[in-house]
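In the laboratory, one determines a bound structure by crystallizing the protein with its ligand and collecting diffraction data. In a computational setting the workflow is compressed into a single prediction: the sequence and the ligand go in, and a structural description comes out. We illustrate the idea with S-adenosylmethionine.
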Amino acid sequence: MRYFAQFRAGLGELVIDALRRDLRSVKVVSSDGSSLIFDAGTDPSTIGNLGYLKNAFSVLGMIRRCSAQRAAEQFAEQVLSTPMLRRQGRTSFRTMVSVDGRLLGLPRPAKTRLESAIAKATGARPSPRGGGVEYWLIGRRDVESMLFCQRLTTGIKPGAAGSLGADLAMLLVMASDPRPDDVFLDPFAGSGSIVRARMALPYGRATYSDLAAGAPYLQVPSAIRRRARVTVLAEDALELPSISSGSVSSIVTDPPWGEYDRLDVDFAAFARRMMASFDRVLQPRRGRLVLLLSRRAAEVTRGLWPSANLRLVQSHQLLVNGHSASAQIGGRLPRVG
Ligand SMILES: C[S@@+](CC[C@H](N)C(=O)[O-])C[C@H]1O[C@@H](n2cnc3c(N)ncnc32)[C@H](O)[C@@H]1O
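The predicted complex, in structure-token form:
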């Protein structure tokens, strides 16, 4: 099946990687900074539940790029003359139009023609207030086609102020190759967005730790405090005294970048101690690490992976709230001999 997905600008590399991990036979047809068209051998309900996509649609039809009015007329004909809506249930629906990122209204005759065709093909009734199926006519600046789509998602919820956002947190977790028996740690957990994303998938144990946990400005969310097999700590990530050596299988974390948050030492010294601490707590054979850093901080940590007995496998360039950032992904070095 063909799908159209929108995501937060700047997360494209991580999104494509996550889709390749989550879905069967993914083939990217086209992509721009905040959306992509792809084919996948996975059913629409699975795509609709991917927490890191802002919006996902199944593509029911594609025609050459033209005006929204002309597209509505052509899709109305296709709806009546082809089985494209064959499997749609009898429920209410509404139609929406988005061209080059702007919501548009269709001229009344074209809208009526499209909605009458959908009603005839499906037996469903138009309901302009929504609540039923949404059919979208979509045009994108860099795509030579107009798409006729069914919406699969209701959109991601924004995270707490200063937190990463549920979509990016989930993408970072997916990049860590999560496993059901993982002993997971976020040692700079802040609002807990990464821990929450990790708890949404099967895990063995999880630890939330942040030096400021419990401070008036950083209360640990009850969804984390009350969860089974989750430990909450307020420890220095450079020491982690409660965590035994070699006990953690996966760290996914967003440390201070040394640019927007003050550190007592320079970032290079901080990063050296952080990587030594991660080397101590990560399992010697299976340990995996995903770091989110500013582009500048990532230049510093890049050279520190080998000395922490870790291999940096991939670096993805991202935009996080308009700031250039990198996601560094890797794990223990393969054993020789
Ligand atoms: C960039 S924020 C993490 C934000 C988090 N990912 C979120 O979504 O809310 C970095 C966090 O590291 C914590 N922190 C700073 N230095 C620390 C240290 N040495 N050990 C543990 N936590 C520390 C800060 O309190 C802050 O919450």
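The chain is about 25% helix and 30% strand. Keep in mind that any predicted model is a hypothesis to be tested, not a measurement.
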